TrEMBL record:
The keyword Ligase does not apply. PROSITE patterns: LON_N. Keywords: Hydrolase, Protease. This is ATP-dependent protease. Pfam families: LON_substr_bdg.
Length: 215
């Protein structure tokens, strides 16, 4: 369990378009670029083993590279395996969101940022609940969306999932654009995230979305 005192002031960041990590959720990653292999190996040497997932945006960043959204989510490396050709399959478990203060210029091949954890203390607590969640109506909407997009999933598992696991898993897995993923990340509560997710699903039903299969 990560405690507030364990959260560092400087964090290695992994800018990955469309990739969303949320507190207490798990994100599998395939790491193969040399700079991110180095980032992963350096993270393993620290006590916290934290990597910050953040989305690039269209605003130019350092030396003409992509800018970064101000808010990301740090994940702790909780599982990894190495392939024969030196790649890593890793799992990050979401610890807490953060706000980027500034990017750190240094000698690492990967990007690092000075970050603030203020305002995200709830992320380190127990799973959130959503008292206003109408699960039956939500699943009916989801079934329409899956049918329209020819998606498949294990409905029994979805029906039995806790509120937070259900909402966060769908937020991470469904194929929304980066701006929508960022809105889901920045939602201040599980209720707000669920409402945002419903809005995105309803919009997709009206306007279409990319194919994706949930397993």
């Amino acid at each position: 369990m990560i405690k507030p005192a364990d959260l560092p002031e400087t964090l290695p960041v992994f800018p990955l378009p469309g990739a969303l990590l949320l507190p207490r959720s798990r994100l599998p990653l395939h790491v193969f670029e040399p700079r991110y292999l180095q980032m992963f190996e350096d993270a393993l040497k620290t006590r916290e083993r934290l990597i910050g997932m953040v989305q690039p945006n269209h605003v130019p960043g350092r030396e003409g590279g992509p800018g970064l959204y101000a808010i990301g989510c740090a994940g702790r490396v909780t599982q990894f395996s190495e392939t024969e050709d030196g790649r890593y399959l890793i799992t990050l478990t979401g610890a807490s969101r953060f706000r980027i203060r500034q990017e750190v210029q240094g000698f690492t091949p990967y990007r690092r940022c000075d970050v603030s954890w203020e305002g995200f203390g709830r992320d380190l607590g127990e799973a959130e609940e959503d008292p206003a969640f109408d699960r039956a109506a939500f699943l009916a909407l989801l079934e329409r969306f899956f049918a329209a997009q020819k998606l498949s999933t294990d409905w029994d598992t979805l029906k039995e999932a806790e509120d937070e696991l259900l909402v966060n898993s769908l937020s991470m897995l469904l194929d929304f654009n980066p701006e929508d993923k960022q809105a889901l990340l920045e939602a201040p509560s599980l209720t707000t995230r669920r409402e945002t997710l419903v809005t995105l699903i309803e919009f997709a039903l009206r306007g279409g979305a990319s194919e994706e299969t949930l397993q």
